[in-house]
Amino acid sequence: MIVARAPMTGGSMDVVTQTLARRVRQEREARGWSLAECAERSGVSRAMISKIERAEASPTAELLNRLATALGLTLAAIFADPEADADPAATRLARRAAQGEWRDPATGYLRRTVTPPGAPGAKIVEVEFPAHGRVVFDTVADIGIAQQVWMLEGEMELTLAGETHRLAAGDCLAMTLSQPVAFANPAGRPARYAVVLARPEARR
Questions:
Q1: What is the mean pLDDT for each group of 10 consecutive residues in the chain (204 residues)?
Q2: What pTM was estimated for this model as a whole?
């Protein structure tokens, strides 16, 4: 069962919750969707979408991914702040203390946006994944985004199209975001990895 809880408070998590609320509302309204239509397209309840847009609830990663997919976005994109990205005066240096964090209320995994706002090219996300945790992204927006998962500490199991890849520290798995994927930590200690997202270059 997918659950959602009240948003966590404290520092960058508050900022990310507010950014997420604005982003979901702006994307929905840009498409001319009512809350009811967005709910129908995403499989996320109208009441939950309303709470997310008012920053009154923190959705689980699985629920948020369904909403992002319906909007034609990646999970990373739905955390982005278009206003900061478009600000030409914004610094392109992201100190660790200022990098936005978001914690999945269901599993406790912590997601950190590493790339500075508005930086061109690839986007980098750091994830701290709890021991024995598991997250399934069962819907994906097939918009031609390539993703690489680079293990920094611990180990993870990633399952795509029925094939499971076990990654240890230093390993890197490349994939295209075009199919459901499951992330699982089989070990009794947390894992940490970096996710790099970019549009793949055209083959010559």
A1: 38 75 94 96 95 90 93 87 68 88 93 89 94 91 85 97 95 90 96 91 47
A2: 0.83
Gap between the Cα atoms of 72 and 78, Å rounded? 10
Is residue 72 a contact partner of residue 143, using CB atoms and an 8 Å limit?
A: yes
Nearest one of 57, 51, 63 to 2, comparing CA atoms? 63
Tokens of 24: 């979901």
Question: Is there a contact between 113 and 99 (Cβ–Cβ < 8 Å)?
Answer: yes
24: Cα separation from own chain's centroid: 13
DSSP assignment of 141-187 equals --S--EEEEEEEESEEEEEETTEEEEEETT-EEEEESSS-EEEE--S
How many CB atoms are located within 10 Å of the residue 9 CB?
8
Rg (CA), the chain: 17
